[in-house]
Amino acid sequence: MTPSSLQASAVPTACVIGWPVKHSRSPIIHRHWLAELGLTGDYVRHPVEPEHAADFFANFAGGPFIGCNVTVPHKEVAFASVAHADAVATALGAVNTVWLEDGRLMGSNTDAEGFIANLDQLAQGFDANPGAAIVLGAGGAARAVIWALQARGFAPIHVVNRTRDRAEAMAERFGPDIRPAGWNDLPALLPQAGLLVNTTSLGMEGQPPLTIDLAAARDDVLVTDIVYIPLETPLLKAARSRGLQTVDGLGMLLHQAVPGFERWFGPRPVVTPELRRLILADMGIVEAGAAA
Q1: How far is CA 81 from CA 87, 104, 108, 256, in A?
Q2: How far apart are CA 152 and CA 130, in angstroms?
Q3: Under a CB-based contact definition with an 8 Å cutoff, are residues 203 and 235 in contact?
Q4: DSSP secondary structure string for all residues of 38-60
Q5: FRET partner for 77 with CA separation of 20 to 30 A, picked from 61, 185, 197, 292?
Q6: How far apart are CA 100 and CA 78, in angstroms?
Q7: Angle (nearest 5°) at CA 181 between 140 and 110
Q8: Neighbour tally for 268: CB within 10 Å
Q9: What is the pTM of this model?
């Protein structure tokens, strides 16, 4: 289904597209901000089959939406479809946020900004003395994380992946500061890194756990996981049991939504503890210390 086949909304409406998209929590985030800021608008889920994604973007200007977020598996199609992609989206080869300017479809990628803003909020000063970092995984999420870490001065960045050629592709994309590594190299790399990031799906609900022996990790290492279901992944649980600083992945979801909302509706929203509690409640989670 393309936007032109939908009835135009009476209020400014943005959406999230993907396949599937029924579990997206983006409508909760954006509707919260619309209500909080007293704005007229809406944000909805809009499932688009992979074979119809290119048509969706080609017909976007004639449709009912003022913009949209793009989730899997459409980010690369979105990148190929926009008239202009910003520097981050170009570096990553993927678009997750689109909008119209003078009838032209524009694209950005806010995943890197969302990742780094989450760390800025929950681990202030994490980049005060950037050095070596380890990124687990070599997919699309890893590209965003690597870009963000390079922007903050982290080097070298060891990309650890079960398929080494995919890690080597990251070095080709991002340059000599990227050091490809296999899973067996991880024990020797852990003592060097001040930051460890999981970008794989391991540890996600329904996936095998990510089991790593963190005994060799530095005492001051920050461990973060972009997975947020479950909120405490096996990796984060293991890190906390060792007394290491951790940051869960929920904030990345919240912060990556900020630039799109500002682009579509005007004001720049703020990620607050209230918003975090709202999403956690939808996940059936009450954090320790949260108000009853």
Answers
A1: 16, 11, 12, 21
A2: 7
A3: yes
A4: T---EEEEEE--GGGHHHHHHTG
A5: 197
A6: 13
A7: 20
A8: 12
A9: 0.93
Q: Which two tokens stand for residue 128?
A: 């005060």
> Is the separation of the CB atoms in 46 and 19 below 8 Å?
no
Q: Contact at 8 Å (CB) between 149 and 131?
A: no
Rounded Cα distance between 98 and 101, Å, is 10
Query: Which token pair is 96?
Result: 């997750």
* Alpha carbons 50 and 55: distance in angstroms, whole number: 10
DSSP SS3 for 97: strand
Q: Cβ distance 227 to 206 under 8 Å?
A: no
Among 25, 46, 74, 75, which one carries the catalytic annotation? 75
Identity at 190, one-letter amino acid code? L
Q: pLDDT of 29-87, one tens digit each?
A: 999 999 999 999 999 999 999 999 999 999 999 999 999 999 999 999 999 999 999 99
| Single-letter amino acid code for the residue at 145 | V
**Active site (annotated) includes residue 237:** no
